[in-house]
Amino acid sequence: MDKKLEDSTAAISDEVRVDRRRDLEALIEMMRPAVQSDGGDLVLVSADVESGVVEVMLQGSCSSCAISATTLKAGVERILKGRLSWVTEVKGDLDESVDLEESISMGRGGYVPKY
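Request: output the structure for the sequence above.
Response:
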C-alpha cells in the first residue's frame, strides 16, 4: 500500500482521541455563556474524534429563536472548525421539547412557529 495513503487511513492513538475530546469539551464550555446569556444552552451530543463529525444541540430559549440556525452555522460550526483542525462537520439540532410559553420565558429569542 502507498505509504501516504496508509498514513492517512491509520487510526489515531488513544492519547490523540483524549486530547481531541478534551479540547472540544473546553471549547463548548467557552461558548456556552454566550448562548446562556440569551436564556439558552449549548450541549455536546456526540463527537467522533476520528471522522471529525460533531453533533450539538441548542436548548432553552434557543429552541424558539428566529436565529438559531444562524447561531449553529455561523457561530458554533465556524468556531469549532476554525479552532479544531480535525473537525470536518458540525451537525446541529434544536431541543423542541420545551413548549412556546416556557421557551419565551427563558430569554429574548424571537419565536418561530414549528408549523
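The longest helix spans residues 14-36.
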